[in-house]
Protein 1
Amino acid sequence: MSSSDYFALLGLPRRFAVDRAELERRYLERSRAVHPDRAPAEERSGAAGQAMELNQAYRALKRDLPRAEHLLALEGVTIGDNQPVAPELLAEMLELREQLDEAKQAGDRALLDRLERAARERQRAELGELAAEFAALESQAAGPERADRLQAVVDRVIRLRYLARYRDAFEDEDDAQEGAA
Amino acid sequence: MADHDHAGQAGHVGGGLFQIAEPGESHAPRKCATRAVGIDLGTTNSLVAVVDNGAPRVLRGGEASGLLPSVVSYQADGVRVGEAARRLAAERPRDTIASVKRFMGRSPADVASVAGMVPYELVGGESDRVVRFRLASGREVTPVEVSAEILRALVARAGAELGAESFADSSADSSDDVPGPIEAAVITVPAYFDDAQRQATRDAGRLAGLDVLRLLAEPTAAALAYGLDQGSRGRYAVYDLGGGTFDISVLELHQGVFKVVSTGGDTALGGDDVDRVLAARLLEAAGSRGGEGHDAGLLRRALDEARAAKHRLSDGPSTEMRLGDVAVPLSRADLAEVMRPWLDRTARSVRRALRDAELATDELDGVILVGGSTKSPVVRDFVAELFGREPLSQLDPEEVVALGAAAQAHALSGGTDEVVLLDVIPLSLGIETMGGVVEKLVPRNSTIPARAVQTFTTYADDQTGFDIHVVQGERETVEGNRSLARFQLKGLPPMPAGLARVEIRFEVDADGLTRVSAIEQVTGKQAAVEVKPTYGLTEEEVERMLLDSFENAEQDLARRSLLGQRVEAEQLVVMTRAALARDGDMCDAPTRAAIEHGIAELERVIPGDDHRAIRRAAEELDRVAHPFAEARMNRAVREAVRGRRVDELDAEPGAGRRR
């Protein structure tokens, strides 16, 4: 149901490159304006609704992957769970997960930290590529070439989703330890 | 399902929109109290503070210390709270409840593991939602009632010190017909408290006659106290190890906005655990064991001695624990060793909170200590090592939370409007899908108030309802998470599988409490709902307790009922108007006139004070609009058979696989 334009809501240009300081400034400014604590009693539930939408928008725009997904949604593209994936990406992910499982099994904290750092760097590199793809897409006029550029962005977003899930697996490790304690 | 089922849904009005759970009166207009206090309702000790001349201060009520021991003792001649209750603990262990906070919002199954190590009797079967304490007299009390006694004692203490009549016991005001001055408070909760625990805390406040302005996360309160005092800006971690809970929060403070970036912790971890381990060692040396058939008085004395010995280690490198003629030596190194597993668990929570905040320890501007346990040199050393810096401790770690709560109470009751607080939901909120897998709808650390909307559909032809199970927690499967509520959607019109579109809306308010509502979108058809909260007291139980304790309870209930009816009636008007605007062509002239008349009549009674009149008018509007609703549903079904909506549904991510 995210048909509303979060960029418009926060008064920001609709593009992938986001000025974080500006996003933060506008979010805080609008939060101050709509926060239910500051609304008169009779307007409180309306203010709460606005605050909820504002928080949703901020959450989506603050992080790179959700922002990319929101931009795609505004283009009319939603990425389902069963998208075709490049086989080499799958192979790479399988190998990374195997390494992670071994490190977990061995309880090797140093190795886990090293793997997580590597995952973070990999993610950062992919995000750089995604930013470039978006910049190309945004400067491309409508036409068949634009569709190709859009597809390139979609492919990149799928890769990033896999990487994000792989990083979540590090977090599960902490959860598992907590459960065992 | 028989067609007449939807006519006159008991207790609900509204064309397809209904409230499933109503935690408290979050939409009730808030009174501006004369004076609002901040309350730190702690596991071991509680405090009350107030803003005076622009600065928060702890109210001591004539006592030397601001700390009121969170102990309640039920005696034949009345209830004792605080130090007086604690003195009775060894002598009357079964009637004296300590650390009640650990039991808030918990079921008997949740607390089974500590049942052998507490000196009072816990009752409640596997299927009960709330644990109860059975006193020697046979009377049973809930954790909510025990906590309410602590809150009443704090309010009395505040009254004694401030001498304000507004703090007088609420029953003294019964001569007034107008609802008397309701005392307002901000009550703090561990950031990591889930919905059931927050709800229980709020219920305790209501039971004590308090208008709970806000449930505020303890670490956030602590940062608030520091921020106001120093005009600090930057990123802070708040490390809060109290008697029974651990919280870690990362906050950003700037330009008068306190934004919680991430939070985490453990609700069953703290100094009390350490006391239990030490007490067990002491009992073992004395030739006695905990567990079944223990001597409650002996256990209490051992726990008291363990705690005292632990505190003595703050002043010296070694001491001994004594029980009768048995002495067990205890050094700081011994204590560090006992505490290590707990401290390591806090380190895991810290790592996760920093990861959620996408920060490294060296990007922080300071670490704030909160909670009595952080006074221990063992803990301070550990924190310094963990963060690579000395923690801040200008404010007393035991008072800082109450000070921050007072500041927030002051701000919320109209004292200032400089401070805006953006807090987060500590645990992800999700629903059970096929195979017991949890689908997270509101991820943890989402800023509140927050909303998530999910569309469900039927998976069998002519299915008229389905179950929805709401859970809170981070695990991928249902078993690892806390079950919050189960509810059933019933009375859906028979349609082909995958056609119904039930939009379930989750809303988390600024107190971190969850509301669930639902709309069937295709037909606007009304569906019945059955709520089975899996934890905590039901609304009815809280109301019964309120009746027991308030003289003006009836008035309150009528008022709440009125507010509820108004909200529902207003929603009905809005929805009916929207339906007329969209599909008015399906409505013949007499029906339309009847609906218009029904709307006008309902709008006439909404501002009035008679909730029954509002209900009657709403039911009447529902009745006259019925043929129109039927026609809209028929059109929807016809369109579906032509296949248009089925295509749309296929494009909906996940439609048809959820249940």
Protein 2
Amino acid sequence: MSIFSFFGKQRTAPAARERLQVLLAHERVSSGSDLVSLLREEILAVIARHVEVDNDRVRVTMDRDEHMSVLEIDVEIPLGAAVRAA
Amino acid sequence: MGKVIVVTSGKGGVGKTTSSAALGAALAQRNEKVVVVDFDVGLRNLDLVMGAERRVVYDLINVIQGDAKLSQALIRDKRLETLFLLPASQTRDKDNLTAEGVERVINDLKRHFDWIICDSPAGIERGATLAMRHADVAVVVTNPEVSSVRDSDRIIGLLDAKTAKAERGERMEKHLLLTRYDANRAERGDMLKVDDVLEILSIPLLGIVPESTDVLRASNIGAPVTLADSRCAPAMAYFDAARRLAGEELPVVIPGEKRGIFGKIFGRRAAA
């Protein structure tokens, strides 16, 4: 409970900010760009040539910033996954 | 060659047309030659906001289809010699807005004007994508409100993917114009603050236009707000935004913020 509740209504702007941050992080990946889904497919194909990975265990996200964007690739490789030696 | 600016937002009613008219007039008040182009085919309003609704003879679609020359469709502002309007069609189907036609008209305008301001329709359909298609610079108009910020985020994604500049592999220059801002409500925590919106959208700030009755008063009489009352707070904000568009660097002031304890002039990084 914040001290503002003593004076009446809660501040609502922080909620707006938080909801937007969560929503947009999601939307930028899912609908935002075809690039991300294309990269995801191709990265998955490359990894699958060498290691057995689960489709759902590869996450590709793009974080946009004013000066640059960060592409984050998160691949979970299960213990004991069959490694296809090159 | 003129510079093409698209004024866009995704969401309707946030102030695209008001901002197009005000920025266009503000640039023309600097003696630069400006044309404001209405892309909202079927629902034109720029003519009304600029007070030229009774002078429309030909429109953008007529020019695209070759039924009128560009010079016949352009309407010169009665108050500013260097300000012109190219109206949208009220009756025609928006399918008549073709990519090739728009490109031809924009290229023609670039030869005759210093600034071509494209007033985008709301949404992300054909009219909106064609309005941004040939832009050199985008002005993203946003209200400090969740649905507007979300739609602006979508539009920023489109600007980076679907414009001619993006397809050539170049970086689209994008600027945030925050409109209907109420510093007191933001200070009380009931409205997103400037920094919140900047952090979420991550594009540089072009200006902050305060919520004001002067904007409605200006549209009532059919004058861009910078012409209706050049000394009111929203007009000052648009003049500053126009100066930044023209390349000047000046600090962004949050309008309407209380002086004294809360009075702050931010040395925030403005549009470069």
